[in-house]
Amino acid sequence: MSKLPPFPANFLWGTATSAYQIEGSPLADGAGPSIWQRFAHTPKMMVNGDTGDVACDHYRRYKEDVALMRELGMKSYRFSIAWSRIFPEGKGRVNPAGLDFYSRLVDELLAAGIEPMATLYHWDLPAALDDRGGWLNPDIAEWFGDYAATMFRALDGRVKLWATLNEPWVVTDGGYLHGALAPGHRNYFEAPIASHHLMRSHGRAVQVYRAEGKHQIGLVVNLEPKYPASQSEQDLAALRRADAYMNRQYLDPAVHGRYPEEMKEIFGSAWPEWPAEDFALIRQPMDFIGVNYYTRNVTRHDEQSWPLKASPVKQTQATYTETGWEVCPQAFTDVLVWVKKLYGDTPIYITENGSAFYDPPNAPDGKIHDPLRIHYLRSHLNAIRAAIAQGVDVRGYFGWSFLDNLEWSLGFSKRFGLVHVNFETQQRTPKDSMRLYSRIVASNGTVLDDEGE
Ligand code: BGC
Prior knowledge:
With about 450 residues, this protein is of the alpha/beta class. It has a single domain, classed as TIM Barrel (Alpha-Beta Barrel), CATH 3.20.20.80. It has helices at about 20, 35-40, 60-70, 85, 95-110, 125-130, 140-155, 170-175, 190-210, 235-255, 260-265, 275-280, 330-345, 370-390, 430-440; strands at about 10-15, 75-80, 115-120, 160-165, 215-220, 225-230, 290, 295-300, 310, 350, 395-400, 420, 430. Strand 12 and strand 13 (about 430) form a beta hairpin. Helix 14 (about 370-390) runs parallel beside helix 15. The radius of gyration is 21 Å and the shape is globular. The two termini are about 15 Å apart. Beta-D-glucopyranose (BGC) binds next to loops.
């Protein structure tokens, strides 16, 4: 018998995706280009030259995809809205056809009994706004607020769960500091500015929501708990920097109205002083915190690593996924308990969790056997139960991802899907992990206690 508690009644079970990763047809029906459209079409930026031009063709196949979710018993679905479909020039003129796509998607979900969660920003900034400085331009908080208001007015009667930003850390670290993601900048001075305007934009959207909206809104962060490689003072200081940079940089201002002290140590003269009114804008009460969890990091001091002076230490006894991430369910429990300790009792949704593993393409029985992903899924769901046992208020789980999709600059080379996609034929095949997930959802998690499941 498991000592783990059951999942709460009404636990929201679903899967997640994002617009550029699955939709395809990025310029259809009057949409403007996004920074990902540009980035993906820039030579050498994407593995194998892959782009989101077609991806999972979800823009045209959304009805079949929702039908599949329904068949698989999903209760909810987290998707993102492509800002440049709604505002082709980033601001000003609204494109009704863009609004209509998301309106139809939401209607389809509701008709299938699936609760939608909409993310306003999952990395695909309108290129027209990037031309005006993008996340470096302070005006972006107003542009984002206007876009958010437009979506709340169009969908809030039907969408009850809203996320402002997906993973601001990735937006700045990948987009402005190391350049592996759009818009591909490598600039120590820009990264803190982009972070700050992301957070002002988050605050502005929540403010607008309080005036316009009726339901729930939160911020989605990716958390990667840090553990020290040793108890040496140097390693412990490295751990604090890494933790501040990745885990506290966004939740501290959103919840407590300040940045972690270590940010100055990391960025030195590139870390600006911001006016107090900015923090008043950023610190808006949230209805939930969205946590994306994939992996943890054992951290050591490393003079060569820029700008953190901290590096991960490879664990010899661990399993790593195809993206090189250690599988560590215990760290998932730890990080959820940590969120409660540092940020209080705001309810939590697990807005993403999942793994990329090699999937044999053509099993003779026509199925996709993915035992490693099954192990990941089971152990991470049990890790959530262990956190619930310690008093953490987790309200739902969105597996990443519903479909194999465009893994950003890694293209289609990494498969995170619970449903396999053949990118030549667009055929969808639920993997064994998805079949198990369906049974988990149908039983509200109790099958996790069954032998052999
Ligand atoms: C992102 C997803 C991404 C996933 C796997 C998260 O950081 O929100 O868009 O595909 O991780 O890398």
